[in-house]
Amino acid sequence: MKIVGLTGGIGSGKTTIAKLFQAMGVPVYIADTQAKKILESSKVVRAKVIALLGEKAYSNKLPNREYIAQLVFNDPALLGGLNAIIHPQVHINFKQWAQKQDAPYCIKEAAILFENGGFAMCDATILVTAPTKLKIERVLARDNTSLTSVEQRMENQWEDEKKIPMASYVIENIDLASTKNQVQKVHKTLLSTCISNL
Ligand code: ATP
Fold first, then answer.
1. Segment 107-123, tens digit of pLDDT
2. Cα–ligand 1 centroid distance for 82 (angstroms)
3. Nearest CA to ligand 1 atom 31
């Protein structure tokens, strides 16, 4: 089965688009959801995160998400350290999940794909883009967060301009009707590509 990486900046609409693919029968793996589960349930990960960020990173064996986010989004070295603990675990989990899927291709949604070289493990990539102002508005409307916090997270992601030339497909997600059309086109192309490669 082919692996298609789906990525885009914070608030671009990755999850919205992942759900459109899922509705057409494509198996979808959301890396961020799994990362959160692993942070909660893996003892090994907990010990490593505490060693990196200190005891306050967990209380009653549960991660202090706000505390962790505040530390890592202010310090690229800590963010890199946290990713180095969690990403390999997510990768193992994804491989196990992918083996169980029965479809021409599956989608792995990840906020960071080009930045960390993860795209190299994909057969194709889809980049979701939207204007920065719109992305910020969406996140502020969705989450109980501040503009500073959204901007901090954006600083850890590459600009769309840098990622566009690296992507196999680009979906511009502004108007939802147009987005749906683009998703259908990409799905058709991916299916024909998968079939022609069989
Ligand atoms: P994050 O990286 O923060 O998880 P994301 O890229 O997965 O974000 P979504 O959660 O899919 O983005 O979208 C962000 C918000 O914008 C959501 O509330 C979603 O419903 C809304 N949204 C996404 N696309 C559109 C659109 N085309 N029109 C209107 N609202 C949209």
1. 999 999 999 899 999 99
2. 25
3. 13
